[in-house]
Amino acid sequence: MIDLEDVQWTTEDFNVRFSLSFPGPGIIGIIGPSGGGKSTLLNIVAGFTDPQSGRVRINGNDVTGFAPSERPVSILFQEHNLFAHLDAAKNAALGLKPDLSLDKAEWREVDAALARLGLQGRETHRPAELSGGERQRVALARILLRKKPILLLDEPFSGLGPRLRRDMLEVVRKLQQDLDLTVLMVSHDPDDLKAIASHAVFVADGTASTPQTIDRFFATPLQPRLADYL
Amino acid sequence: MASQHGSIGKNWPSAGALLALAVLALIALPALVALGWSSPGMGSTSASLLWRAASFTLLQAVLSTLISVVLGVLLARALSRRQFFGRGFLLRLFALPQGLPALVAVLALVSLYGRAGFISRFWPELPSIYGLNGILLAHVFFNLPYAALLTLIALQQVPREQWRLAQMLGMSERAIFRVIEWPVLQNALPGIAGLIFMLCVTSFTIVLTLGGGPAATTLELAIYQALRFDYDPRLALALAMGQIGLCVLLLSFLAKFRPPFAETARLSLGPERASLSKSGNPVPDMIMIVLSALFILLPILSVILSGLTADFSRLLTERILWRAIATSGGIAFTAALIAVLIAYPLALAAIRLESKGAVKQARIFEAPVELTLLLPPVLLGAGWFLILMPSASSVGYAPVLIVLINAIMALPFVYRSLAGSLRRLVAHEDPLCESLGISGWSRFSLIDWPILKPAFRAAFTFAFLLSFGDFGVIAFFGSDSIVTLPFLIYQRLGSYRTDDAAGIALVLAVFSILMTQAFSAFGRKEHAHD
Q1: pLDDT > 70: percent of chain B
Q2: Is the dihedral of CA B378, B384, B389, B395 positive or negative?
Q3: What is the CATH number of the domain that holds B81?
Q4: How far is A200 from chain B (nearest CA, A)?
Q5: Are A44 and A4 in contact (CB under 8 A)?
Q6: Residue B161 falls within a domain, yes or no?
Q7: d(CA B198, CA B372)
Q8: What is the domain count for chain B?
Q9: Confidence check: pLDDT of A220 > 80
Q10: B168, B173, B185, B273: best to mutate for the A interface, most A CBs within 10 A
Q11: B290 lies in a domain?
Q12: Residue B6's pLDDT is what?
């Protein structure tokens, strides 16, 4: 459960105002035109952006003003999730100990997380030697190791081909079910939402619509802007 | 008809590039031939001089580079993780020495740390500024901020997502350094150090003014003295071969490690980096920043203060000053124009060929530009000096040679600052232009010129400033009939009219700084509009 209470953030040329609750656990899709505020919404939840006013609550706790590392949140970006000079195991291990001072048992845990994402035998490969899908799997392994209840996905699969993308969405769905996560997934493709999301939100012009179940969201677009966008 | 047009359009850059190559060869080769004319036979005195000069060249360059890079990295790290009022101003301050003529900087440092300088007045036991100390001081004055800015540019290339990851994972300062910053530094430092080392090895004006004598003479200075004072071409040749050998070694090293480079360096690192260090103790960083700022700011203030003591009412009515300004401006303008006109067709040809996969052919156009780095201006000057010295008409050729050698000196830098934009232009616009059949003049005026204008302006300004403040070439060819601003300063220093020298240095410094600032302000406005 994530609550944004009258959250406002303004810069010279951009202004967002969010007031909504994301139900959880589950997968909530966030869709809308580029420049409408989708990424800003994620950044406010993650703590990269501090709103000028309003409160942010996660599972009932007020986390307004908390540093990103103090929030129960993990995020997956579209790219640059991995450090190029570290191999897959070390990149994932950052999720357990960001200074990489792991003991034997913890390294076994890392290997298990990588294996769970289908990366056996890839542990010592560097990002340059991995495919785009594998790189995102390594980042997901790190998220798995961090064990945070909230997962933010910032268009993480839009660089992948259709087949790979379906596979990755399936991975996310499984992770969500196994760990009982609350997932906010930003996408510009309605098909991504229809594939795995239970709810959806439309973000445009710095505001967000109330979350709706996925069927209703697409069956009766409430706002003309959403109909336009689709 | 259209296809014929297209083929002409495709051929002209190569023709232009060949012409540029020919011009380059015409300027550089005779100088080399002249240097090689007298058969090398070395006496034992010259061998020991060569040995001594070479080891001093290396010693001062190694020390200068070490100090500059170590302190530069510390400064860059301090600047990268602190947001404070005046940070933008400081970054501009740290960019200032790059635009300051070496002779002006030397005067500034002497007026501050010299025997009668502001600091020595309060601290009389300060070691002498002449010799190794002063050379190191001047090199660090130029290169510490340069190393810091280049390191900041490198750090700035860390994608924002990775700083956010560090925030999210709660990385400690140590972890940030180990996981994010050290790999960046590891990649960038060899290139930065190599570049600074090269600048220190070929530094001439600083060594001429602060060094000298048997204990503090570099190869370049020894070449100059061998020709200008002793007229000993054999010795000059031996020294020149030593210098070229050293530069070959250095360049083969530099070719592997390229220093970080951004044509429009945005040095703001974003709020993520600063907020990562919010909780840490800011005092060590701020001490580093304040000390560095004073180290750069004090000499600049000192130039202004001691410059203002000059008798400007007399100085400004001296015709020689106005003639020197006009001469410097004329030389710099022409040299910059020639450098851009040679570099542009070469860069365009090389990058086109590269984009079509013809990497070897591309090297034909790129390599000569890099090779000019082997020929420090003093070497070119020495070669032409040997050709023309015996004839009485040498004075008449001097302005032409000064212009051409200055142009060659600026060439590698002009090439580099054009290459980045050209590479993007070729990648983004070539396919569309070819499919639409836009070529030749219309292509240049409609597509290339508007896109390349900022790059051209940056390259031209840089070349202009380099020639405007240059003393290395004019030291060979300057005479009463051809006087540039730096030469005039040197003359006045030689006749102990220090106040005059300080006044003229102020004029030169103000002009150089205004040029740099006007240019960067101009560039920003342009940027804001698109």
Answers
A1: 87
A2: negative
A3: 1.10.3720.10
A4: 25
A5: yes
A6: yes
A7: 13
A8: 1
A9: no
A10: B168
A11: yes
A12: 39
